[in-house]
Amino acid sequence: MRQLSGLDASFLYLETAEMPMHVGALSVYELPREHRGDFATELRAHIASRLPLVPALRRKLAWMPLNLAAPAWVDAEPDLEEHIVAIRMPPDSGVAELEKRVGELHPVLLDRSRPLWKFHVFDGLAPGPEGGKRVAVYSQLHHAAVDGQAAVALAQAILDLGPQPRTIEARATRRRKGQLGTTAMLRGALAHQLEQLGSLVKALPAAVGALSQVTARSAGGSLAETGAALWARLSGGAAPKKSVSNLGLAPRTRLNTTISDTRAFATVSLPLAELNTARRRQGASLNDALLFVISGALRRHFVKHGPLPRKSLVAAVPISLRAKGDTAANNQASMSLISLGTHLADPARRLAHVLAASAAMKATIGSVKNLLPTDFPSMGVPWLMEALTAVYGRAGMADRIPPVANLVVSNVPGSTVPLFMAGAKMLSNHPASIVVHGVALNVTVQSYDESLDVGVMACARAMPEVAEFAAQIETAFEEFKGLPASAPAEAAAPPAKKAAAPRRKAAPAKKKSVSKATRTPRAAAPTAKRASR
Questions:
Q1: Over the stretch 491-511, which tens digit does the pLDDT of each residue have?
Q2: CA-closest candidate to residue 320, choices 357, 279, 366
Q3: What is the pTM of this model?
């Protein structure tokens, strides 16, 4: 038995029918040309062989008596017929059909009596440009079990570097004998609470010292000076009258509402080499470039659908608290806030705003990052959090409380080389994440092979036009590439690769563009790929 951390367990307490707390991805695979079998059956056999490597797939929840404290993980053998299900799509289905199905499946809660994961295998997709058969997999993993980087580590255990699956050494898995008694569970929970209290007390002096330093530095104006100086350097003009700050409330938009139990999902892929070339010309990190592109898409979206707030929209951006090399299947992350500059029409000034806001965030969070707790005493917390969550949703508090952020933007590092699963080659991997009351839009990005795969998840009632928003991400990307250089290239940046001819993505000629997700129903655009509808 291993009791969940306070952060892990909070995703269980916050879960309601309107707020499922699982994450996942829509991945498209190309089967070997000689393939004749049933991929869902083959995937079950493949996952069965990898279960010794992935404890997160073979454990379930054991609840504390009277739900007094955080539950624990106990060993459980998954029924792969229930966890890996086949779904037959209409013949020659493409990106739009897949996105619609993910939007329908995402609100369905995972069964808490089983291990908290499920794979949906979609068959019936349009073939590839050379006639190759393709399948898609929509994966669901509860956020109580993994965060973004833990999910990547889990995928590395399941996926292979070539079509021939690697040999896995047989390992004996520990099996729990019998049921845990009430007394044993309570004793273990109490010991865990005392251990957590001791850890918090020991960390308190260091935390107070670090926070004091941050407060003193902020009071001295160093953060404001950093933002102002960066603005002036990048925008080519004088520093703004007011420094760029991430503090303060976000403007209210139609995204800041009580969400429904419906979801709308869309995907888009951006060429990673072109994005890296453009962001180096601006002296920006990959994350900064992503924030600028999302900012431009948001501005276009709200100009069209209105109203565009006069104040900048604010993104909640997860930050990892993991030590290098830590692949534990749990959550080790917190949130920061970044102003996106959506109130600025000039792209150069908006980019300067984003870079200055990002610099200010990093200067603040760097001092306290390692002090943010992911575990804390949970005695009585389940009752309190579940009751507050229910009241918050039913009373529509998100419609009245001033918002802190307008959306979530998350960037998860992924593989830079092609990967395979059960002999099939992965073509794309678009994340599908969580929206909550008050923040009805989540844009999660993961790099894969030569692309940046973007998954846009929204409450279908608050923002049904996610496909249009995905197309606006492409437009904002083109805008970013067209900006004149405002900073010298990174000193350590590798030389840009010679541009290759765009790969064809399968397509009847009558369609204009393609999403990397299937590469089958449409012709490829030269830079960013997107599904026509």
A1: 334 444 444 443 433 333 333
A2: 366
A3: 0.80
